[in-house]
Specification:
- This protein has one domain: Nucleic acid-binding proteins (OB fold (Dihydrolipoamide Acetyltransferase, E2P)), CATH 2.40.50.
- The longest helix has 6 residues.
- It is mainly beta and 273 residues long.
- Strands 9-16-10-13-14-15-17 form a seven-stranded antiparallel β-sheet, with no helix packed on it.
- It is built from three helices and 17 strands.
- GO terms for molecular function: rRNA binding; structural constituent of ribosome; transferase activity.
- Belongs to the universal ribosomal protein uL2 family.
Amino acid sequence: MKRSKATNPSRRHRLDINYREVLTGVRPQKRLRVKFKTRAGRNHSGKVTMRHQGGGHKQLYRIVDFKRDKRDIPAKVRSIEYDPNRSSFIALLVYIDGAKRYILAPEGMSVGQTVMSGPKAPLRPGNALPLNHIPVGTPVHNLEITPGKGGQLVRSAGGSAILQSKDKFAVIKLASGEVRQLPLACYATIGTVGNADHQNIELGKAGRKRHLGIRPTVRGTAQHPDSHPHGGGEGRSGIGRPSPVSPWGKKTLGKKTRKLKKYSNKYIYGKKQ
């Protein structure tokens, strides 16, 4: 981490990652980048479906290989790069057949390291194997839920899950404390996702939040009663109801929002107490 000198008020509280010590400084691959149009949280009809989104710096999306489907072909790590679309760093792999792919960079990965995907791959950080070939107790990330679909779980910076047991299914404990079953044929990557210091970043000023494309959040009590159920009243009169609600009148504290008949309920049998 790097603490900025307080040359002005906005830098006084700024705490950042020292990217020069982590990243290799190589320019991103042109063929692995695509245009990424921000839609300011609006759907196809122009209605806001995700609030507090909009603006931000222009970004190009990096195509990350979550499937790891080039099996039993070794690849060398060419560079560790920054990805503006996710909290973790990404690593550029160059396979012996010339193909280039981006993957999530795990903790401890370095340039020149050899990685591989497949049942015969060694148990080293960055290698992807099916769960039935991974020993119990191993930390993993980029977990598939459906075999062949690509990793969907544990992809953010510093994240890892623990393989607890294997029988008809693999039993995985996630960082949230949730315990769920996954098919043994699902692939997972060994190790912990890198850039764990991401949680320690202090932006230092409101403008950096806007650069990320995040717009301000206004308190409900500060709004007009036509805009929010907490609004209105003479002076600071509270929210005017027994418990807080969303702008649409739905309870926001304590009410469960998960569907009672969600398809994956039968695979989840342990939750954080």
